[in-house]
Design brief:
390 residues; alpha/beta; 7-stranded parallel sheet; 4-stranded mixed sheet; 16 helices; 44% helix; 14% strand; globular; binds NADPH dihydro-nicotinamide-adenine-dinucleotide phosphate
Amino acid sequence: MNPTPPRPAAPPRRVVVLGSTGSVGVQTLQVIEHLRDRGGETLEVVGLAAGRNADELQSQAQRFGRPVTALASPGPDAPSQAFDFTGPDAAQELIESVEADLVVSAIVGIAGLSATAAALRLGRDVALANKETLVAAGELVMPLLTAHGGSLRPVDSEHAAIAACLAGRPVEDVKRVVLTASGGPFREWPADQIRNATPEQALEHPNWDMGPKITIDSATMMNKALEVIEAHHLFGLPAERIAVVVHPQSVVHGFVELRDHGVLAQLGPPDMRGPIQAALTHPCTRPGSAAPLDWATLGRLDFEPPDEDRFPALALARRVITSSGGGGGATLNAANEAAVAAFLERRIPFGRIVELAAGALDALPPRPLTGLDDVYDADRAARAWVEQQI
Ligand code: NDP
């Protein structure tokens, strides 16, 4: 063994939370309070951004010493003068006006792209939950890291696990990475039943308590498809070196298979406060806020291959990664967002979600991305195409 390595630098102090009123945002603020009360770590919340939940944003602002606030859609009853920035660009304006060490990117969907890209253009470190940013615009976003000196810390539990296992290993040492998938609520359902599942059934996730969009994505397994594309950009790996295995207990979050056939894995309770805290305190480790694994009662860990006949979304990820020209990720992401919204509004059956996402890829050939405007063009075209089909 080498001598004890030097203590890593202290974690960041000033934090902005984008999407603070959502599932990841609320848990991020809980972890920040936990670190202050139990971990001896005081992170200062300097900015909070949300979509439409004015009451929750105001109450969070009071709780955290009145940081700068941004609300995208204040609504008729919300006092817009209560927030520092309002309107569709509010989160980006907040990022550009506040000095911060770390930005937690937890807005849902493509709405998170502009503020996340702005943070990276300012060289900020970003704890990334908003996978849609990399799915839609990874080709444009990843170069911002080298150009401006910021970093991306994955918050998605699978990518956080893989990053922890990689621990700076050169990519040539890695045979492939493996993302685990819970399989969602329909893992054991027959195809015809899955096709007609209701929003209530699809929103009933067996292991994770998350926002509605990602919960539906988990039920279609589109979430895993988006995560494969996210892993492709984050770790610089081709599609054939990113595998998915269904693991119903959601205890092993990710594997790294090395070229010497050794396998590294990261395990932890299925609780997002774990990866959120790891991203907040990186490169240090602090006492955890989530309950630890109980080995005595854990029982078995099961693994099975994904059934791509019943869950055809995964093939779309490989298609986007291997298609030339870029832009396919923006199309897939937007078509999926539009289809999920239509399903939750009961305008289409569950089975149509992935069909529409695949149809958009067929109908709208990918175009090279030269800037974020190209991403938004592809996004608009895919949403319009999906609406035409409904
Ligand atoms: P939620 O739906 O719970 O929360 C979404 C957040 O985004 C809310 O704070 C919402 O504000 C905010 N928001 C929406 N539109 C805008 C906008 N235009 N400007 C500013 N804020 C906006 O989502 P989750 O927390 O579940 O997911 C967030 C991201 O994290 C997604 O990309 C998801 O894939 C990813 N993720 C989530 C996990 C989870 O466990 N939930 C796990 C891994 C990844 P408001 O509520 O005020 O409208």
